[in-house]
Amino acid sequence: MTLRNILISTLLCGILSPLMTSAKSLPKEHLTIARNETRLSTTDSSNSFIGLAVEQTRKNSPFAQMPELLQEDADITTDANADKIIDYASRFLGRRYILGAMGPSAFDCSGFVGYVFKNFGINLDRTSRQQFLQGEKVSLGNLRPGDLLFFSSRSSGRGRVGHVAMVTDVNPDGSCRFIHASSGKGRVTYQNFPDNGYYERNFVGARRVLGTNLDSGSQLAMNK
After folding, report:
1. Segment 193-215, tens digit of pLDDT
2. Beta sheet of 106-107, edge-to-edge order
3. Taking the CB of the first residue and of the last residue of the chain, which one, N or C, has fewer CB atoms within 10 A?
4. Is the backbone peptide bond immediately before 104 cis, with ω within 30 degrees of 0?
5. First and final CA of the chain: distance in angstroms?
């Protein structure tokens, strides 16, 4: 210990000693208040530390590489009809992918999405590129089940829409799962997103159909 530190320690002891003596002579109720305030101060510090740790974890998440996911907290409010639409879409898991097919025994990507929504009185255009112009634009940070995700494909060229999928689940960190007719897998299947791979590299945008003018006044057909 340096001479400077020794002097500082001595001074502190001299200052604190009378205060400690005074504290012992305080009425019991005053000591109780002091202890409670100390505990509250400690709790506040702990909460601040925990909050900082959570924020740092969020920022260091793999999904932080996609800034749009962190622009806002994920709004995972579900449209009243989304669960029914997603349940209906899941009935076709495993159906074959065939280019140009519109169901129900086989589908291409836009044929699948169009077939599912049509069953609920929502008419989408035929191709993924046309569907990308329908509904309302939505950010990844505000995805809901039932929203549509659009990707470029090998045939469409990078940056141009060539594939469409439908969101089925949204996680608190902004990641999601979608269902689609996959040409690569050759069937209707699920896919997690972001995937740190093909779909993340080729993502173009997201659109919302449910709750827009496309389905205003539509009658749910799926009661069978």
Report:
1. 999 999 999 999 999 999 988 87
2. 106-107, 96-97, 187-193, 176-182, 161-170, 148-152, 203-208, 136-137
3. C
4. yes
5. 83
